[in-house]
Amino acid sequence: MGSNVNYTIVGLFVLLFTAGILGFAYWLAKHGGQEEYDYYQVFMTESVADLSTDASVKYRGVDVGTVAEMDLDPNNPEQVRLLLKIKRGTPVTTDTTATLKFYGVTGLAFVELQGKQSNAPRLVPRNGKIPTIPSSPSTITRLDDALSELAAKSTRALDRIDRLLSEENLENVATLLKDSRDMVHDLRNVAKAISDQLEEVRELVRKGIEMEENVSSAFDDVTRASLNVEQLASALKHTYVALGDEASRMIDQGSDMLQLLFSELDVLIDELQSTVEEFRTSPADLLFSRSQPLPGPGEVSTP
Fold first, then answer.
1. Residue 57 DSSP symbol
2. What is the sign, positive or negative, of the torsion defined by CA atoms of 140, 143, 147, 153?
3. Strand, coil or helix: what is 208?
4. Any idea what DSSP says for residue 122?
5. What distances in angstroms separate CA 53 from CA 63, 72, 110, one per listed residue?
6. 113-117 LR contacts (CB < 8 Å, sep 24+)
């Protein structure tokens, strides 16, 4: 009976001791001596086939955490959501980006974090939500996009070259070359003709220069003539003033003479009227009357 009690106590002690060891190990594994971590999420549109859970997260090549979870974004199935477990104190800022990179030999993927400005504000959770780190395309993705774009441009270029080298265009080019040769031949003939006529052109230029000199001389003569005309106009102006005064004087004299002539005409008209009256009164006297001579000096007139 006593032996059974001792075994029971020993067994209970062993169970309690084992449970305590396991509990301590669990606490030690969960809390004891481990660093604290912050969680961030990243949304990627490219394939993460070579990335796995517990893959490394590096900040400029330094291990700062691991990938805790990988799943599809429920709001957008075209995106993959990564939950990153990063050591607290890692300088994750608002301009930090996450890029998928690969080890050289193994081809395994990891997440590379990289910031642009050291003084950017830290990325912290807002309203209890996990902060999101923006993603940027990986080198392979950029290379694939560049190769795809290059292939598309090459296809378009080859298509244009094919259209350019069509039979119709080749015939047009041949015709154009033939026309160009004819044009070159014509240009040579024109150049030869110009060369033959060069001496005449030089003579024409010389005559043109002489003509320009003559025109310049004639222009000087015209200038001098214009000055002489101005002087003549001034002299004529003075002469006209003098002639005007003389003409005014002559007009005054003529007016006096006309007045005297008009007076004599008045006397003559009066005498003619008297004669006409006498002729009307006694026309016979005009025919048969004799006129008596006027008495001379010292004579007495007889009736």
1. E
2. positive
3. helix
4. B
5. 15, 14, 10
6. 113/57, 113/58, 113/59, 113/60, 113/64, 113/86, 114/59, 114/60, 115/91, 117/93
Distance CA 205, CA 213 (A): 12
CA distance 144 to 68: 28
Q: Which residue has the tokens 């893959």?
A: 55
Q: Which two tokens stand for residue 67?
A: 């990938």
How does DSSP classify residue 232? H
Let me know if residue 256 belongs to a domain: no
Residue 257, Cα to own-chain centre: how many angstroms?
90
Provide the edge-to-edge strand list for the sheet that holds 97-102: 37-44, 76-87, 62-73, 56-59, 109-114, 97-102, 135-136
Q: Which two tokens stand for residue 80?
A: 């993959």
Answer yes or no: are the C-beta atoms of 81 and 43 closer than 8 Å: yes
Count the domains in the chain.
1
Cβ neighbours for 117, distance < 8 A, ≥ 6 positions apart: 93, 95
Alpha carbon distance 150, 145 (integer Å): 8
78-104 residue pLDDT tens: 899 999 999 988 889 888 999 998 887
Query: Has residue 233 been placed in a domain?
Result: no
Of the candidates 173, 157, 56, the residue with the CA atom closest to the CA atom of residue 108 = 56
* Under 8 Å between Cβ of 247 and 240: no
- Domain of residue 56: give its range: 37-136
User: Is pLDDT of 32 > 50?
Assistant: yes
Q: Is residue 72 part of a domain?
A: yes
* Angle formed at CA 183 by CA 180 and CA 184, multiple of 5 degrees: 85
Query: What's the predicted TM-score (pTM) here?
Result: 0.43
Q: Are 80 and 70 in contact, with CB atoms under 8 Å apart?
A: yes
Question: What are the pLDDT digits (tens) for 190-207?
Answer: 777 777 777 776 777 777
Token pair of 13 as six digits: 């002690």
- Whether residue 163 is contained in a domain is answered as no
> Quick one: tokens of 177?
């070359």
At residue 112, the pLDDT reads 92
